[in-house]
Write a structure and sequence with these properties.
Blueprint: H1 2-14, E1 17-24, H2 26-38, E2 44-47, E3 53-58, H3 62-71, H4 82-85, H5 95-114, E4 120-128, E5 143-151, H6 160-168, E6 179-186, H7 203-226, H8 232-246, H9 261-264
Parallel strand pairs: 5-6
Antiparallel strand pairs: 1-3, 2-3, 4-5
Helix pairs in contact: 1-7
Length: about 260
């Protein structure tokens, strides 16, 4: 019974965690834990049996953690590259299919490149490359649309022309004036943690405190029962009798019965 009571607080503490994400790569899990830590939320990374990773947080932090990861577009998926797209087997190639695959791979690589810029959370690139007909005298120039979600504490205004030049230089026939750029600032709002580290107003924290007190009371009760103490009153009176037997001269003395002999005379 005593080992069970000692393990009870650990079981209660373990039950207060909720899984936030599952089936993650280790890099994705590390990124989520790092972002949560920046906002005062402790994330726990665990490895699953299928060699994937999961991230858990306290039950009372699930809502805040979900908002933070949503604002930061986490977890981020991987981007395809041209090498993977053209590594398919087969000797017969369809020019139209290869052109679509090439444009898609190019947008993926450009998105990954833009996400390397400090402060960029998510980057999406869409390229419109018209079909070229040698019989047509006038050929429509390609264009591109770029959407970037970035942290509001980073200033990307000075990077607009550089981003347009980067995208235009990666597509044949594309000029910077035909690159349409949209910047979306993101400011995650999270309730700051209290100075003491514990907020008693949160239901989860209050419940944890109540369960901890109950577990402590059970452990103390089990220890007292193991010592053979069945009642506090007999123990108290037994101690008083022991003290009276040790001092027989004072056994019959009562407070208030001490008289001054001089006054009696």
């Amino acid at each position: 019974m005593r080992p069970v009571l000692f393990l009870l607080p650990l079981v209660l503490l373990a039950g207060c965690e909720s899984t936030l994400f599952e089936s993650l790569e280790e890099g994705q899990a590390n990124q989520i834990v790092a972002v949560l830590s920046e906002h005062g939320i402790q994330g726990v990374k665990k490895r699953n049996s299928d060699k994937t990773w999961s991230v858990s947080v306290d039950s009372d932090k699930v809502v805040a953690a979900t908002e933070v990861t949503r604002d930061y577009a986490l977890p981020r998926g991987g981007h395809a590259n041209l090498g993977e797209l053209f590594s398919r087997q087969g000797l017969i190639s369809n020019p139209g299919e290869d052109q679509v695959r090439y444009v898609y791979g190019l947008t993926q690589e450009l998105s990954e490149t833009l996400e390397k810029i400090d402060g960029v959370l998510v980057a999406r690139v869409h390229i419109v490359q018209p079909e070229r007909d040698p019989l047509m005298r006038q050929v429509t120039a390609p264009s591109a649309s770029v959407m970037i979600r970035y942290r509001s504490d980073f200033n990307l205004d000075y990077m607009k022309e550089k981003i347009r030049g980067l995208v235009a230089g990666s597509v044949e026939g594309l000029t910077p004036d035909r690159v349409y750029l949209t910047l979306v600032p993101v400011t995650p709002l999270v309730e700051p943690a209290p100075a003491g580290g514990v907020d008693p107003r949160r239901p989860g924290t209050l419940m944890l405190m109540v369960l901890t007190v109950m577990a402590t009371v059970l452990i103390v009760s089990a220890w007292v029962w193991a010592k053979g103490v069945r009642s506090m009153s007999p123990t108290f009176f037994r101690r008083r009798r022991t003290q009276s037997a040790a001092n027989p001269d004072n056994a019959g003395a009562k407070p208030g019965n001490h008289f001054n002999a001089k006054n009696d005379v």
